[in-house]
Design goal:
153 residues; alpha/beta; Rossmann fold; eight-stranded mixed β-sheet; 4 helices; 31% helix; 26% strand
Length: 153
């Protein structure tokens, strides 16, 4: 049974934090679905991931291609990506269901701490997932480094 990790972004933006988390997930051997809510935003993230340093190359694809099922990281707006992920990273308010948390190794919910609607939405996701028995952790970078601020088993 997996867990939902909530990442409250206050110091670094999504486009800087996401590659770090994706790298760690790939080191664990996980296939990853990055789930968003807006196709244009996902295309923008796709471009940003290609601009990373050569020594940190992160193989990935934008959903809708001929090889979606082969992608180690697939950016999509549709749940249940074709790449059979072990981990879902939800961005920009994308929804994750409790049964997905239970079935996956991990769910990561990244949200912008400077956007009150994003913070409110993440609080609602925390409440909904933990009410259904999902384990959850809340991580904040407010101090300058990532610290676990809350956990519910």
């Amino acid at each position: 049974m997996g867990a939902a990790f909530f990442y409250h972004l206050t110091r670094r933006p999504l486009e800087d934090t996401l590659p770090v988390l994706l790298g760690r997930a790939r080191q664990a051997g996980w296939r990853v679905e990055v789930r968003g809510t807006d196709q244009a935003r996902m295309a923008w993230l796709d471009e940003r991931l290609w601009l990373g340093p050569d020594d940190e190359f992160l193989a990935h694809g934008l959903a809708g291609g001929a090889h979606d099922g082969d992608q180690p990281v697939l950016l999509t707006c549709a749940p249940q990506a074709a790449n059979a992920p072990h981990c879902v990273m939800a961005v920009n308010g994308a929804e994750v269901a409790p049964d997905e948390v239970a079935a996956l190794e991990r769910v990561c919910i990244l949200f912008d701490g400077h956007d009150e609607s994003a913070v409110s939405h993440a609080r609602g996701q925390w409440a909904a997932l933990t009410a259904h028995g999902c384990a959850a952790q809340y991580w904040s970078e407010e101090s300058g480094r990532w610290e676990k601020k809350a956990e519910k088993a």
